[in-house]
Design brief:
The protein has helices at residues 2-9, 23-48, 62-84, 90-122, 130-154, 160-197, 206-230, 240-254. Helix content is 74%, strand content 0%. The chain has eight helices and no strands. Helix 6 runs antiparallel to helix 7 (206-230). The chain is an all-alpha fold.
């Protein structure tokens, strides 16, 4: 019964899981960084790149905005769902986690279509830079991760034992893909600055300074999200029904019984 008692010890007297004292501050800080990064992306594109449109030269600008919103901000928030919503039912939390990933995927897909369509219209080459290689790899891995996650955790056919065995891999690859997305965005930002500014980049052009600030915001958001995810004491505690399923799974796989704890 030790594991069950450990779960109860993390709850308040009312049976509701207590929120770690520092967690809300870190989550709020991550949201401040993420929203500021999105706003700074819009400001950079509006002030120095002419704004955003689907047709003409401004179509390219759809790409960075969508990628920052989708594959960085929304994906990061999807990863934080299980830290923030600690007392909702597991199914509700799963659905919210999945929906955020769906929105992130759709927005990122729009950004991907925009850049390929822009290159086609202008006659530019595709997929020659390190940024584009990393971007395609990140997008494909993200899509595969979502499909596999849906099959295991939202589709009712997967067994509890299968989900339990796959869960650590799902968590690892989710964090890894998020890290890839942030790194790819930084590569793309640097590439865009060098293409336009060239040697002027080293003269502290205002656009270069603003874009550097944007890069720091993206990196800060990524680090803060990963920090929250790696704090084991901030994990969402098992609810009673999840604890019972976990103990039953241990009984079946290790020959234990709840009474032997």
């Amino acid at each position: 019964m030790r594991s069950f008692a450990g779960c109860l010890s993390m709850e308040s007297p009312t049976g509701v899981a207590a929120t770690p004292r520092a967690l809300p501050y870190y989550v709020a800080f991550s949201q401040l960084l993420g929203l500021t990064a999105v706003a700074t992306t819009g400001a950079w594109l509006g002030l120095y790149r002419g704004g955003i449109a689907w047709e003409g030269a401004l179509q390219f600008n759809v790409h960075p905005l969508c990628m920052v919103i989708g594959l960085i901000f929304l994906q990061g928030d999807a990863l934080l769902v299980y830290r923030v919503f600690r007392n909702e039912t597991k199914r509700t939390t799963k659905v919210l986690h999945g929906l955020l990933h769906v929105f992130a995927f759709i927005i990122a897909l729009v950004g991907l279509v925009a850049v390929f369509d822009y290159h086609r219209k202008k006659g530019y080459a595709d997929l020659y830079s390190l940024h584009s290689w990393c971007g395609i790899l990140t997008f494909v891995l993200y899509f595969v991760q979502w499909l596999v996650g849906f099959s295991f955790f939202l589709f009712p056919g997967a067994s509890f034992s299968l989900r339990s065995r796959y869960r650590p891999q799902h968590v690892f690859f989710g964090a890894t893909i998020f890290l890839f997305a942030v790194g790819t965005a930084l590569l793309g930002l640097k590439e865009a600055l060098l293409f336009k500014l060239g040697a002027k980049y080293s003269t502290f052009e205002p656009e270069g300074v603003l874009a550097n600030v944007l890069g720091l915001l993206l990196a800060g958001f990524g680090v803060t999200v990963l920090y929250i995810l790696t704090r084991t004491e901030w994990k969402r505690p098992l609810q009673a029904e999840e604890q019972a399923l976990s103990m039953d799974f241990k009984t079946l796989t290790e020959g234990d019984s709840p009474g032997s704890q």
